[in-house]
Each structure stands twice: as C-alpha cells, then as structure tokens.
Design brief:
By secondary structure, the protein is of the alpha+beta class. The chain is 57% helix and 16% strand. Strand 4 and strand 5 form a beta hairpin. The termini are far apart.
Length: 164
C-alpha cells in the first residue's frame, strides 16, 4: 500500500488533470513515441502559438481523473499518451494534425470537443475546419460582397430613374 504522502501527490495530479479538462473547450490524447526532444519542443511552441498546451501524465492517473468526470477515453489510454488542451475548440486539434503531417511519429488517438468524445476520424474532420479568425474573415468577406452588390443595384436603379 502506498503511503499517504504518495497518495496525496497522486490526488494532486488527478485534480490537476480534472482542472485542465474542466477549463478546456477541447482536449486531445496523442501518442508521442518516436519524437525527438527537438520535435517535442517545436510542438510545444506551435501549441503555445495557438493558445494550447500539452502535458504528459501517467495513463492510470488520467484514467482516474476521466472516471471521476464520467468521461470514457479508455480507448486512448493504451501506450504512452500526452494530453493536449485548449480554450478554442479546434486550435489544438489543427495544430496537432498539421504537426503530425510533418512528423509521422505523432498520432492523434481520441479527444473531447465541447463535451463530445471524438475518435480519430472525427478529429481529422475537425482539423479541416478553418480557425476562428479564418471563419470571421470569410463572414466579413461575404458581408462585404452583399453590401457591394446592394450598392451596385442601387446605383443602377438611380441611373434608370434619371433616364426616365
């Protein structure tokens, strides 16, 4: 039986994991085996740029934290796993997916986006969604197009009225 001090330290880590999950819009479990130290540092920098981060925890501690939160991610807790978390729903997923294209050692396992469990296929689908800024730019471009078309119509209508 583990000592009370060790159990308290483990509980502190479990509480930290639960805090990360509760305060994040999305979390992703990924396999980092085969990545070099330089690649992991590069990954951390890329995640920081997108407002995300990752930590490596023991699978047993993550399993306990997830079971306390009534989350079933047991399929992703096989082999070494790292936990990426983000305030944005797709930022961490997009960053990890883009990084995995350049570094095949990184493999996305499973994640949670807005409380819904997402398998590898769903994570790949989320990775194709443009970022929030990209979506806002698309929306603004569409709105500008409508205003431009309206102004052209009004100008043509005014010219037609002048001729009559």
């Amino acid at each position: 039986m583990a000592s009370a001090k060790i159990l308290a330290e483990k509980q502190k880590v479990i509480d930290e994991i639960k805090g990360c999950v509760d305060s994040s819009a999305s979390i992703v479990l990924f396999d980092y085996r085969g990545m070099t130290d330089g690649e992991t540092k590069e990954l951390r920098r890329e995640l920081k740029k997108s407002g995300s981060d990752y930590k490596v925890y023991k699978n047993t501690l993550m399993s306990r934290a997830f079971s306390d939160l009534n989350i079933d991610l047991s399929a992703g807790l096989t082999g070494p796993s790292a936990l990426a978390f983000s305030q944005d729903q797709v930022a961490a997923i997009k960053t990890l997916s883009d990084f995995a294209k350049k570094h095949p050692a990184l493999v996305l396992k499973v994640g949670i986006v807005d409380g819904q469990v997402a398998d590898q296929a769903k994570l790949a689908e989320y990775a194709t969604i443009p970022s929030r800024d990209g979506l806002l730019t698309m929306l603004a471009g569409g709105m500008i197009g409508l205003v431009k078309d309206l102004s052209i119509c009004l100008d043509l209508y005014a010219k037609q009225k002048e001729e009559n």
